[in-house]
Automatic annotation (TrEMBL):
Listed InterPro entries: TLDc_dom
SMART domains: TLDc
Biased composition (Acidic residues): 15-25
GO biological process assignments: response to oxidative stress
Protein name per UniProt: TLDC2 protein
Natural source organism: Crocuta crocuta (Spotted hyena)
Gene behind this protein: Tldc2
Region annotation (Disordered) ranges: 1-39
Taxonomic placement: Eukaryota, Metazoa, Chordata, Craniata, Vertebrata
Gene Ontology CC terms: nucleus
Pfam families in the record: TLD
Transmembrane intervals: none
Length: 227
């Protein structure tokens, strides 16, 4: 199941550019200036993948428009099961952006930042804010190269992030069990895991949403009401 041989062909990439759906534009020029000191992200609940140190390091690479936004856990395999369809369902009603983090069978932590919510799509979507990252063990971040716009594509049986020459920067199967990572033109990334094919032990999808109360959620407030 979920073998990498079932990856979509590169021929789809050429079509997908025309199929790209409208996405949010780049942040407005009057967006808030980057604070001098790092702003600690507010997590609605604890992460089972990332520790406080990893969260702090990652937050420094997020776009300025989400600095100080709260992180609400929209999906995790320990609670919602290993199912890509379930991940899409939990994303409904969210516009994003989303931080996807996972740990594999080797204990390696890596993932991706998507400028918008993860969803089913005919073609690739997203913006140049999208990036891949890996803690190996120090954080490495792979930003958009500008060489193509193959950011995110969601099928029923696979989720792909970054592409080029028939390879995907990050690829997950429909069971959220098997995955793959290869260098790709979109991000000029290294293999995120210790091997090109891996098994997922834990996966979380965090929605980064701005809240009127400074990113801190009142105890009685459901995190999703802030999206």
């Amino acid at each position: 199941q979920g073998s990498l041989s079932s990856q979509p062909s590169q021929a789809e990439d050429a079509l997908s550019v025309e199929e790209r759906e409208e996405e949010e534009t780049a942040p407005a020029p009057f967006s808030a200036p980057v604070p001098e000191g790092p702003v600690e992200p507010q997590l609605a609940e604890a992460s089972q993948v990332l520790g406080a140190s990893e969260i702090r390091q990652l937050s420094l690479h997020l776009p300025p428009r989400v600095t100080g936004h709260s992180w609400s856990l929209a999906f995790c395999t320990s609670r919602n099961g290993f199912s890509l369809r379930s991940l899409y369902r939990q994303m409904e009603g969210h516009s994003g952006p989303v931080l996807l983090v996972l740990r594999d069978q080797d204990g390696q932590m890596f993932g991706a930042f998507s400028s918008s919510a993860l969803r089913l799509s005919k073609g690739f979507y997203g913006t140049g804010e999208t990036f891949l990252f890996s803690f190996s063990p120090q954080l490495k971040v792979f930003k958009w190269t500008g060489r193509n716009s193959f950011f995110v594509k969601g099928d029923l049986d696979s989720l792909m992030m970054g592409s080029g020459s028939g390879q995907f920067g990050l690829w997950l199967d429909g069971d959220l069990y098997h995955g793959g990572s290869h260098p790709c033109a979109t991000f000029n990334n290294e293999v995120l895991a210790r091997r090109e094919q891996f098994c997922i032990k834990e996966l979380e999808a965090w929605v980064l949403s701005g809240c009127p109360h400074g990113g801190k959620l009142p105890e009685a407030t459901n995190a999703q009401t802030c999206s």
